[in-house]
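haha ok so turns out i had the wrong file open the whole time. this is the CORRECT one, sorry everyone. sequence first:
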Amino acid sequence: MYEMKPEYYTGIAAIDQEHTRLFELAQETHSLLTNDTLLDKADSLVHLISELINYTRTHFSHEEEYQRSIGYTGIEEHAAMHRKFEDKLSEFDFDSLGEDFNSQNETVEELLGFLTTWLITHILQADMLYVKEGKAGKTI
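then structure:
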């Protein structure tokens, strides 16, 4: 369901591998949402968001490094989008999760919606701009 589709590929192998992992994390988020046997999802959610934060920092660093290497003119704007994504992930309030199954599911659903919408629009719009401007075959 949450996977790299052909239109998401940039042609930059390292970036595409990292995007694939981000879609895998979206799938893990979906699996957490649909897991009705796990009544307390707080620990899993905290772990998932921590992994997202750490992985996206690494990925964003790689993207920005590539953009610098090709002299991408929109790097500052692109980096600002990355910081906004990180800020949004940091806004998820773990302290209020408690043990309420519905509250936890709402948080997981909010995370999934945010993550998938951001991933798809960011890749198709923002990332494809630097791909067009740069050399799609360049490796990092």
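Residues 101-133 form the longest helix (33 residues).
again sry for the mixup
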